[in-house]
Each structure stands twice: as structure tokens, then as C-alpha cells.
Amino acid sequence: MSQNLFEGTAEQAQKLTDCINAHRGEAGALMPILHEAQSIYGYLPAEVQTVIAEELNIPLAEVYGVATFYSQFTLNPKGKHKISVCLGTACYVKGSDKILEAVEKELRIGCGECTPDRKFSIDSCRCVGACGLAPVMIVDDEVYGKLTPAEVTEILNGYISD
Amino acid sequence: MVNLKINGIPVSVPEGSTILQAAKLANVRIPTLCYLKDVQCVGSCRMCLVEATGARGLVAACVYPVSEGMEVRTNTPKVRKSRKTTVELLLSTHKKKCLSCVRSMNCELQKLALEYNAEEDRFGTDHDEKPIDDLSASVVRDNSKCVMCTRCVAACNRQTIGAIGPKHRGYAKVIGSPYDVSLAFTPCVNCGQCVVACPVGALYEKSAVADVWGAIVDPSKEVVFFTAPSVKATLGEAFGLPVGTNVEGKMVAAIKQLGDVKCFNMDVTADLTIMEEAHELLERIKTGGTLPMFTSCCPGWVKFAEHYYPELLPNISSCKSPQEMFSAVLKTWYCEKNGIKPENLYVVSVIPCTAKKFEITRDALKGYTDAALTTRELAKMIKEAGIDFANIPDAEFDTPFGEASGAGAIFGTTGGVMEAALRTAAYKLGGDGAPVEFTEVRGTKGVKEAEYTLGGKTVRVAVASGLDNARRLCERVKKGEKDYTFIEIMACPGGCINGGGQPYVHDEIRNSVDLKTVRAQALYDCDRENKYRCSHETPAVDMLYKEYFGAPLSHKSHELLHTSYEKREKY
What we know:
The structure holds two protein chains of two kinds. By secondary structure, chain A is an alpha+beta fold. Chain A has helices spanning 10-23, 30-41, 46-56, 60-69, 89-93, 96-107, 152-160; strands at residues 81-86, 120-125, 137-139, 142-144. Chain A is 45% helix and 11% strand. Chain A has a four-stranded mixed β-sheet, with helices on one face. In chain A, helix 2 (30-41) runs antiparallel to helix 3. The mean pLDDT of chain B is 95. At the A-B interface, helix 3 and helix 4 of A face strand 8 of B.
């Protein structure tokens, strides 16, 4: 199951119930419900997938299969600060894989995951159009270019107290 | 009717038929992999591609509908090349440890690779070693061998469980339960329909063969085997005999050649189950107990009810299954009688079922059955022992648990438990001359219903096999739509004769032979020819009541022959 403890509010649960009720009985209800569930919770925790499966009377395996098939669905929460390391061609040849490695090592989580304190989450992306600055990492809306792995710690430290 | 030609052979088939169906009529063989009759028809594996006039490119014969005047070619160079490439691509990500694979010599992929001259490493070998899930008491999954045909998923969905499905995408795609949770922690009921649907070695039972060999050579152990009713009707298939051959005599002889072991007939405790169950039913009717009463001999059904219909648990008979009744009798009466310490008696059941492997681990039943072997595992042991099964002279079951009734024999097929119970109930209520054949509950129809008057009382019965049908029936009972008295449920479609522990049957045969009917016929023949037709006539049952249990539903039988159930969460 998800490494992060699920914390949902009553308000979120109500929204999910409303959304399921709105689509109940429709053919192909699962996709729109998953979309809305993700916008309610920011991701698709196991607990939410289970509720959807039970309510729609379909196996959890089916819900999980759909949630893991489409890349726009995420099973992990996003952190307060969203880190994205570009693995596009230009960044990659400039060693962005080493940048990603450094970020993963620093935060002790893998790509696609979120720290247990929900402060940071790491993702990779393909080309942000700043190839001249390769390798590039984005934290929230800030772009950091011409990075070396050694600079990663300092940049992240700037967000820790935030 | 639609007229078409397949490789120049004219055939007429009903409108809406597929090319594959038409080819069968023309006796033209088209290879399949993901297609399995009654289970899956999606056209995804591309093994059955053929050329057809009016179609662009090659089409999948299993899903492509025929049309008037169509000409189909199934063996052109283009078709053969395509099939060869398809197999080679499958092999490129397949863990090719064929020599030590459970399915070696019995693998559908291996067969196709040979037939189409596939080069094993044409596209290299690029399989990731995937973890083996062997935490379930019944089923092991080795995804390194999986070919993604999804026949297991379709089989599980057909059972309305859906414990497994495809997850992730592209090269990361695997079949399994959600997250990385083992099958053991899902609502899987261990029916094993996924195992018999699998064309390769990706799914197999949790083997007890090594343990049983160990016990056979252990001088401190006395080993007793007993075989379930349907095993005699299917074991022969593992040795190349035609489907539906009754090999009881050979089976017993072969088991006795495995070592210094005794071999008993589980039909006897099927009879014992009926004595308890029929009396429980009559008792419930008399005292206004919970009705309808459901049978309890199928461990797949019991776990299904525990997950999905906990509110119906009071309706399920408290009788242990024949396997568990036998083990209880052996570890108590038999041990006392023969001066054996129960811990020195090693009880091996041979069953057509993977769920029985789970059953022996249930808290309330632990310690009675030491090992449960599927029909396939028994066949494996017989082969390993170098026994010439086809030519071995028949032998008889050991006494006192040899002779049983025909009612016990038909336990192995859908409707059999019901008919056996009705025979004994009819006798209890009507005495001599009561009917012994209740043919309305026979046959492979998913749900069967009948109404009988027994001793002036009207009894409404229903029989379901396959959990989709069981679910339908449970819903009807929950809503109170029908006033049933007694309901028999078997988890596998067709009952134990089509159980998850039965010999692997290639898609080619499964797609053309009605396994369920042919195998069941062997049991009905056995019943018809039997000296005893009713459970209460079986001498060993009579003896057990006289010597040990007193009477059905006695204090002692409640203690040893009955059990209880628990509500289970799904996730």
C-alpha cells in the first residue's frame, strides 16, 4: 500500500461520495470518477480507490489497473514543494540523471514519490524548453539551470524552513 | 446460414459465427492462445491471424465474423511468418527455463514455438526477473513466465472475484493483485480457475509433493491417502487417457506403489457428510432453523460467502467438508482403533481443488489434514515414481474405507451433493421405496431449480456452480425472492470435475470438448453401477455411527464433524 499515511477530511469524503453518486449507473463511470477523485485528494490513495471499487461494485484490481495505466493519474501525494527534474534529451546528455539521483538521495525518496512529511515530491519531466540551461530542475515555479549534483542540497535547504 | 470457404473447403455456419468456429467445422486447425471458450474472447494475442477476403491485412479468427462468400486462408507464408514472429516476440520477454518448468511438455507456448519453428532468441532475451508470489496457501504466481494472455484475469472475473488484473503499462505491465499485495491478502477464494486457464507456467498450485515424499520415507510416520470422488474421473487425462475415463483401480494401485501407504476412498466421508447434512437440514426444517440451508463442502464457496455474503453465514451448513470429516475420523477413531499416535499419522488428501489447500490451514481445521495434493500433483508423483500407469493392474481401496455409495461418487459434480442429500432425506421421510434419482438437478446449467415432495413436505431446491451463478442465487435469497429450502453451491463451473486442481487441458481440447459433461458422466456411470445408491447404505458410515459417533448430530459428531465460519474483509 501507499507509503504515505492517508489523511482525508470529512469534506473530501463528502465530495467523493457526491461525485460517485453523480456518475453511478453510467457506463464508463470509472474514468471521470478517478479524475475527480484525484482533483479532490491531489492523488489516488489506496483508500480512495477501495471506496470507489466498493461503491461501483467492481474489483479493486480493475480500479488499480486503470489508475496505473494512465500517466495522468498518480498514486502518490504531491508535496508542498513539487520538484521536477528534466530528463529530456539535452538535459539528459548534460547529466540530469545525476541531478535526479542527488535529489532522490537528499530526500530519501524515489522519483514519483513524496516525503513522509509531505514537504517535497519528486517527478521527472521531458523538456521544459530551457535546453540552453541544461541540466534543469524546477521547484514549484522556480527554474534552476546549469546545475551540478553538488548544488542540489543547498537549493533544497532553501525550501526546508519554508 | 452463411457460406464460406476455408482453405478451399466449403462450410456453412450460422450468421455471427467467427472464422475460428467455422474452421472447426471444416476441420481446419487455427492456433489460439488468449482465446478460451466460455472464458475469454478478445483477439489480443494475434496467434490466430488468418487471411480473409474483404479484410484489410490479417484478421484474428477468434473474433472476426464470417460473411457470405468469404474465402479464408489459414496456412499461407504470410500467415505462418506472422505466427512465428508472434511466438518469437513472446519468447523475447519469457523466462525460458523450460526444462524445470511445471508446464514443460504441457505448455501451450512451447507447443506453438515448436509448431511454428520459432527461434528462441531471435529478439534476444530481455525478461526481468519478477518476484514469485507464493504466500497464498493455494496458488503460486511466477510473472517471469507470464505471456499476458489475461486468461487468468478473465477466469477470475467470470467468477466475479476480480482478485487480479493487468497493472501498469508497457514493459512495466504485469498481471497480479492491486499494489504489490500478495494474492493471499485479496478476496481470492483459491478456486484455481486461473491456474487451469493459464497456458504457461506462470500459475501453479503451492506444491505439497516434497512434504508427502518426506513423510513416506519417514519411519515414524504412517501415511494414509484418500482420494476425492472426482479424481478417478480425471487422473487418466494426465497419462494421455481420453477425457472421462474412470481410472479408480489404476489410481489406487499407483498410490499404493508410491510407498508403504494406505489408500482410502473419500466417497465414504462424502456419504458421512450427507448423513450429517441431511439430518441438519431436516432438523432446521423441524425446529424452524435458518433456511435456506447452503451446502458447505466447497471451500471456495465458503470463503466467497465469508468475503461477500457474511450475512448468509448462518445459512451455511455447519458440516465440515468430506476432506475434513475424513481427516477428523482418521486422527481420532482410526488412531484409537489402531493404536497410532495422531501426530504419527500423516494424512494426505488427493483433491481436484486448490481451495482445499487453503481449507487445511483454516484455524478451526488446522492439524487434521497434513497435506492436500491436487490431481496434478498426484500425477506428478506417479510419474516421478516411474509407475507405468497405463498398464498397472487395478487395485482396491483399503478397508474399512473402501466401499462407498454412488451418492458419494456424484459429489464431484454440480448437483451431486444435492441429489445425494435428497436421496437420504427422501429415505428418512418416506422409508423404503423412496426415489433415488433426482435428474432435475443434474447437468451443467449454471443455476438449476427443482421442487420435490418428500414425505408429504414440499422441498424447494436450487443448485449453482460457478461463483457468478452463486452470486445470482445469493442475491435472490437475500431479497427473499424465492422460498428455497436447500441450496448446493460449488465454486468451479461444473463442480469439482472442473476444479482448479484438475489436469491441465490444452485450449485446443477445452475449446472443442465439453469437459464438464464428459467428466461428470464417468461419475454418474459409477453411481448407476454401484451396489449402494444412498449414503445411509454405506457400511463404513453405519459402522462409524455404531462404533463412534452414535447418531448424526450427536455431541461427538458436533465436536468432530462440524465447524464454524468467520466474516472476512475484502481488502
